């Protein structure tokens, strides 16, 4: 691999998979049926360049959050590699993993359950910084004041508890906690979906400002394509555990290569009151990840599907420069 290219690929995921074993009902045990498996992430590969924001989109249940948690080792991968600045963190354990974890953090979807209600903001941030040896105890107050200013909150809020804040303020505190370890890579997992629409733009703009100021690398997960278009450089589209398309953001929104991407974009809500048609709403429900269809996973819902789509699973391949799609009949050439 070219050295310059390798340096730009700050995050590199190769063949990552995560499967969950489901509960084994007694009747299945008696009938000697094998335990069912849910393949949440299946042989996923992608890269993120340093300072880039990659969007990850798809319907609920497609594996986005599982992929995020597997990348940061909250879930153990079944197979695959996760290179972070050239180091495979999938192979790390114990102290070595804890040291690397300081460099990559997550902002979670629910600001109400992700903060300890029994700890003040000061105690929460102090615990994080001292445990990971980010600073000495005498430096903690200065660091807390800086963090709160960074997320647009006053230093006085340090003495308050999570229950005293609104959802938007709690998410700002979640961002402050993630930044407390001075990370260079952050995964934002649906960071505004639990917030009022009036607050969402504030948090999104805050994240964009922080990323630019600190030169952070960001994986931004969302089902809201309007938000993704606003904040990302490139987009990866996920369906039933697989990435089915990757492209630069504007190129993808202007012309989709995969049929799923096309209907996903067309089915997204629009702000123009003169254009409220939903004629491109995706037909049917996604197949169960426990019982995946043969061939292309999207074929039961795809209006372009042919016999080969029901027999052979397409590979994620370049269909034009800078554009990857897993489709036997991509919509662009």
Task: Describe what this molecule looks like in 3D.
The protein is of the alpha/beta class and 333 residues long. The chain has a domain at 50-68 and 94-103 and 183-295: Rossmann fold. Helices cover 32% and strands 22% of the residues. The protein is built from twelve helices and twelve strands. Strand 7, helix 8 (197-214) and strand 8 form a beta-alpha-beta unit. The radius of gyration is 21 Å and the shape is globular. Residues 1-6 have low confidence and may be disordered.
Summarize the structure.
The protein is α/β, with parallel strands linked by helices.
Spatial shape:
globular
Q: CATH superfamily of the domain at 50-68 and 94-103 and 183-295, called what?
A: P-loop containing nucleotide triphosphate hydrolases
In what order do the strands lie side by side in the largest sheet? 6-7-8-3-9-10-12-11
CATH fold title of the domain at 50-68 and 94-103 and 183-295 = Rossmann fold
Strand coverage percent: 15-25%
Helical coverage, percent range = 25-40%
Rg, rounded, reads 21 Å
For the biggest sheet, the summary is: 8 strands, mixed
Individual helix count: 12
Our measurement of the CA-to-CA distance between the termini, rounded to an integer number of angstroms, reads 27 Å
CATH level 1 class label of the domain at 50-68 and 94-103 and 183-295 = Alpha Beta
Class inferred from helices and paired strands: alpha/beta
So what's the oligomer here? single chain
Which H/E pattern describes the elements?
HEHEEHEEHEHHHEHEHEEHHHEE
Q: What's the architecture of the domain at 50-68 and 94-103 and 183-295, going by CATH?
A: 3-Layer(aba) Sandwich
Regions with pLDDT < 50 over 5+ consecutive residues? 1-6
Count every beta strand, where a strand is a DSSP E run of 2 or more residues.
12
Would you tell me the overall average pLDDT? 88
